Amino acid sequence: MLLTFGISSVLLIASILDVPKAYWMGIATMSVTLPFRSDLEKRVKYRRLGTIGGSIVFVLVYLLLPESCHTYMGILGGIGMGLSVHYGWQTAFNAFSALSIAVSALGLQNAIFFRIFNNIFSSAYMWIVDRIFQPFISFISNHFNKGLLQNR
Fold first, then answer.
1. How far apart are CA 137 and CA 34, in angstroms?
2. Global pTM?
């Protein structure tokens, strides 16, 4: 229930604000919430660090490599993500894949800005949603389950 509310509401916000690459916000929201709700705080932290770190390294590599090598940066990101065990590293390498595609549509500066903004905003948003709505959802769920057990 929390995941459904979080993803749909962050996509609504992105749509209202007309944010480019709004699906990045949905993916980040989903990513920090899965697979276990108990990991949310740690995943929000590593999402932020991995996104910023991966974006900085992407810019450095992008500017240092000749243009003919830019198409390989997405492949490098995919390989790095597949070989990474830690969520922070997976997020950093994921930035390579996402940015290598977004640069052609948004330009380097806008791609970097929206990659960082979309990921930090949506993961922080999900943290806030979790803190506000989880106690309410737990109360409703417990109350509902007690009612079902009494009716048996």
1. 17
2. 0.82
